[in-house]
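Task: sequence design from structure.
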């Protein structure tokens, strides 16, 4: 840079000197003037050189100053760059820590939601069981009131009969012995009734403590077995029946004088009437028998339910007819970030087509997840839709025989694999079906109808008609062993996110509580 700016000036001086020399050679000066001109020329050249030197020095100083400023800027820029890199590393570390904390918080939140849902399901099952037991207890209380009322009347009649058969002491000694024997038997009967009173009171207390309409919760004691109570009632009924059917003892009349004394006869009649009057102890016993409490769990007849093998359904939904108003929704929202899904249920189709079993619609896509069937579609065919327009066709023609069948559908976004089980048998499978797809949350799940908009847009021709029992949804892929266990009634796999314990019914849809499939009618 210095050479590029100094060289032109030197060339200019050299050219000027050369011009002067050439002039001096062309015009020969006089003897006295040549040294003078040369001296003046050299003097001018010296002045010009000094001027050039000063200019060059000033220019070099400005260049050095600029270089120092540029070097300071470079140093400052390097410091800023290092500071930015350090901040970037700290920000990356901070983002990493935040992401780890967020992932841990999400995992903890998911676990908490699962535990909460599990507790809610258990609470719902417990409430249904308590309500059912309360209704059963009310029916049994009414039945036992009738039984004990009849028993009390029979005992009163027996006491009246015994009182009427009592005779005076003395000549009618044989009749008195018979009456004493009857009284002893009646005392034994009363002892048996009193021995039965305590467990019956305990049973009644446990029933009232479990019944929310009677009182608060006291103890989870299920009460005595109805079969045992019924068995305890049988000896009592046999004793009453035996005493009722027993013929009265023969009366042995005492001999009297031909001309009885009316005074003695009157005395004897008074004694007889006084002997026929019940004693205070007997009155107390009769009063206690008549005042027996009616809160005894003694059913008139014990009728066991028919034998069942599949007892993991809990409840059933009945869709009576094809209507836009007959459907069911869930209070539980659809889980977030679903990459795997399993849907299993028992079906009993009562129409010539399957209809729409399940529909999940969001604001962005009304066909996010659909098990779609239609009246005019192929008989027994159902479309398995994930993220419209992608779908797979499933054959369900064997489900149209009016019997219970088990269906289980599993999908995972990994390689887009899906499995369809019908009555424990793998009926269809495939891959590359919505690979990497994630089902978004925030939508509405509907049973029995297909949604054209979120929560509506139903079509009567797409409605499901029949019975649906043991419906459950998981946000994971079930194993073949778990599917087989569901179909054979071995139990409910863990982690179900939606079941029939949390449905809201619409229209004429009814929910029936039935722990076993054989009892779902």
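Answer:
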């Amino acid at each position: 840079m210095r050479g590029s700016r100094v060289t032109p000036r030197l060339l200019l001086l050299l050219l000027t000197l050369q011009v002067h020399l050439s002039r001096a050679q062309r015009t020969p000066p006089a003897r006295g003037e040549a040294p003078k001109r040369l001296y003046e020329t050299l003097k001018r050249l010296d002045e010009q050189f000094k001027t050039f030197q000063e200019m060059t020095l000033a220019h070099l100083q400005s260049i050095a100053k600029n270089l120092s400023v540029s070097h300071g800027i470079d140093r400052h820029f390097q410091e800023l760059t290092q500071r930015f890199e350090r901040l970037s590393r700290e920000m990356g570390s901070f983002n990493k820590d935040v992401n780890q904390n967020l992932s841990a918080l999400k995992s903890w939140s998911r676990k908490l939601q699962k535990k909460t849902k599990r507790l809610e399901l258990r609470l719902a099952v417990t409430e249904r069981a308590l309500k059912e037991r309360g209704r059963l207890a009310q029916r049994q209380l009414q039945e036992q009131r009738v039984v004990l009322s009849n028993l009390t009347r029979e005992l009163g009649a027996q006491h009246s009969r015994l009182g009427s058969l009592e005779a005076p002491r003395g000549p009618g000694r044989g009749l008195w012995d018979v009456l004493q024997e009857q009284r002893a038997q009646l005392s034994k009967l009363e002892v048996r009734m009193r021995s039965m009173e305590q467990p019956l009171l305990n049973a009644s207390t446990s029933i009232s403590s479990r019944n929310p309409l009677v009182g608060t919760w006291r103890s989870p004691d299920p009460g005595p077995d109805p079969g045992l109570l019924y068995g305890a009632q049988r000896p009592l009924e046999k004793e009453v029946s035996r005493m009722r059917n027993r013929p009265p003892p023969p009366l042995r009349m005492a001999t009297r004088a031909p001309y009885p004394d009316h005074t003695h006869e009157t005395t004897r009649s008074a004694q007889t009437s006084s002997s026929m009057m019940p004693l205070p102890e007997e009155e107390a016993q009769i009063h206690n028998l008549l005042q027996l409490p009616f809160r005894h769990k003694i059913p008139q007849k014990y009728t066991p339910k028919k034998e069942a093998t599949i007892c993991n359904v809990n409840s059933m939904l009945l869709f009576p007819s094809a209507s836009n108003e007959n459907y069911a929704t869930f209070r539980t929202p659809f889980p977030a970030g679903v990459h795997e899904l399993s849907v299993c249920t028992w079906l009993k189709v009562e129409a010539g087509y399957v209809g729409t079993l399940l529909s999940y619609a969001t604001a962005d896509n009304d066909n996010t997840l659909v098990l779609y069937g239609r009246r005019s579609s192929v008989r027994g065919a159902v479309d398995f839709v994930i993220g419209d327009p992608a779908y797979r066709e499933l054959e369900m023609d064997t489900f149209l025989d009016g019997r219970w069948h088990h269906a289980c559908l599993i999908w995972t976004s990994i390689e887009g694999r899906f499995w369809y089980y019908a009555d424990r048998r793998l009926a269809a499978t495939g891959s590359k079906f919505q690979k990497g797809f994630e089902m978004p949350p925030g939508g509405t799940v509907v049973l029995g109808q297909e949604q054209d908009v979120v929560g509506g847009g139903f079509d009567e021709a797409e409605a499901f008609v029949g019975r649906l029992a043991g419906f459950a949804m998981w946000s994971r892929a079930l194993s073949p062993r778990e599917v087989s266990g569901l179909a054979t009634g071995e139990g409910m796999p863990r982690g179900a996110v939606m079941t029939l314990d949390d449905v809201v019914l619409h229209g004429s849809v009814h929910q029936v509580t039935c722990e076993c499939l054989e009892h779902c009618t």
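Residues 239 and 316 are 46 Å apart (CA to CA).
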